[in-house]
Amino acid sequence: MKRILTLALALLMLALAGCSAEVTDYRQQQPALDIFHYFQGKTEAWGMVQDRHGKQLRRFHVEIDGEVVGDTLTLHERFVYDDGEKQQRVWRIRRTGDNRYQGTAGDITGVALGQASGNAFHWRYSMNVKAEGSRWLLDFDDWMFLQDGAHLFNKTEMKKFGVTVATVTLFFTRTAQ
Prior knowledge:
The protein is mainly beta. 12% of the residues lie in helices and 62% in strands. It has a single domain (23-174), classed as Beta Barrel (Lipocalin). A 10-stranded antiparallel beta barrel has the order 1-2-3-4-5-6-7-8-9-10. It starts with a helix and ends with a strand.
């Protein structure tokens, strides 16, 4: 019986994985998102973290300073959460090919891999996350969608063993450059 349940779960996860969108599905969508252009300069975002049932766990504001030098975008992110906690992260994102990117940051395990197409950017990485007094290594499935020249939506699923445990939703706006 246990073997049948394990097989059924594996088949279900495989089937669901096959249903996910590809970034190239958005190749005709405009305006086209160039993350180097969008994040160069000052950007602000407001977001929330929700558990797998949709309950809001946290809200936050983030200020981002972006600088492009050659094929590298450096993002200095400063987070302030609704409980007063502050956090900083520095991303270094390198353009590796046509619409393909790799990124690193202090709390990212390994290298983040991303691809842009049309108005979308899809980013996958693993991050050590502090929650409930413990540290968890979670996989992030991160999607960004440019709405116009100044506004961008971001939705990220945080997963453990392939199961979504939380979702992060953000709204970005570029400040006057």
